[in-house]
Amino acid sequence: MSDAQAATALCVSPFDVGGKAQLFIDQVLVRSSQGVSFTLHPARKHPDNPLIKVDKPWEGWRLEIYGSVIYDEEEKLFKMWYLAEAPGYFGCGAPTFYATSRDGVHWEKPLVGTAASAKVEKHNCVVGDAHLASVIKDNNDPDPSRRYKMICWDCRRRGYHTKVSPDGLTWTDFSQDPISPGADVITGYYDRERKLYVALPKIGTDVRGHNRRCFYIITSTDFVNWSKPRPAIFPDLRDDAGSFARIEEARPILDVPDDPSQVRTEFYGVGAYTQESCTIAFPWVFTINAMNRYKNNQEGPSEIQLAVSRDLAEWERPFRVPCIPRGKMGEWDCGWFNTAASALRVGDEVWLYYQGSNYTHGTPCVYENTGRLSRFTNSIGLAIWPLDRFVSVDAPAEGGTLTTVPIVFSGRRLELNAATHDGGRITVDILDPLAERSLSRSEPFSGDELRATLKWRGRDPASLAGKAVALRFAITNGELYSFAFRQ
Q1: Which of the residues 123, 192, 355, 417 has the least number of beta carbons within 10 Å of its own beta carbon?
Q2: Tell me: the pLDDT tens digits for 2-23?
């Protein structure tokens, strides 16, 4: 490739939005704005939460969604691989279990376990020697024995490995060597837009005087050969500056007083959701207030935040507050959080299963049989967003505007995901690239729709497809979540 060809391949301006929905979690497409704000919309918790609790003796005292939930289109079935602490039952103390649901809310634990156990004959444990089971169903693999693929922490081989299965129940080792350095937590998923297997391994990294839990990214086109780890989700100065506020929120359930030399932010894991134009990540933010009373680990709470990337290389985290609200002190999800490896698109909603506890990372119940199954619980719930409604561009009754950078699009009509209130409206101008002259103006939109098609007073947008333009959104008492040019 010549230098000129390489430069063309890397050019992102005018920004090609194609026919994909463009969100405002980042501000990559924002050239200027007046009178608007950007608002994070936390998930709605399912009213029946927690949906899955410990109710089998072989699950021990707590279960966690250190795993995946998929919807099997062929079987019309939600399938979950999760972790439970079951010392003495299976190969490792926290093996992988299996559950199913017809509606994603009411779950069963079928006794189809394939892991060997000397203590129980029938159970739902499917991998006795591994956990952190990120599972992908791959109908494109010509080998039926590899229909299901797993990225996990292999307890027996002490590393990040892969496994394969014909049915999601009987698993065999696939990788010969670890797919990445690091230890403990890894999550993974399949990116259908890029046709890539993606994994996020935890690799301890020195950051401002502490070796911290940080997350890198590795990818594979064939599930065999994996790229070298590249940095992805790292704590920064803004994270550390906000540590004390997060500690204060969980103060009533912390086990030890603060040690200023230890207060900091790290990351414990990362969930993901592949949206049309970006990858949304759900970092598990661990805020450390001190070493625990045993001096063998750290104490502190966690929360789920939001991150976004358009290329899996550069990540932005504009909002440093929970995207899944913390429960009130004493509730089942007031202390420690993690999420499934990936979120699901379910109709016109995005579902993210998450684990919540009413204790923190260093609480004695983690290390001693103190209050287990009585005072202290660890269960799985569900967080839900309306489609693409993670962040909105908001304007008050006085109105505001947002103008994009120059873009090119490939669709024929413009859709908005937006909501207005009390006489509010949203109007869009398609402008020349300098944003000085209007080429076409839409009729005003009012209402609350996930995909409202605009009508136009001027030129049909189809006549401007493939040309460099800018968009100006004029918003009055409304919320704009995304836009998309559709065919």
Answers
A1: 192
A2: 443 343 456 889 999 999 999 9
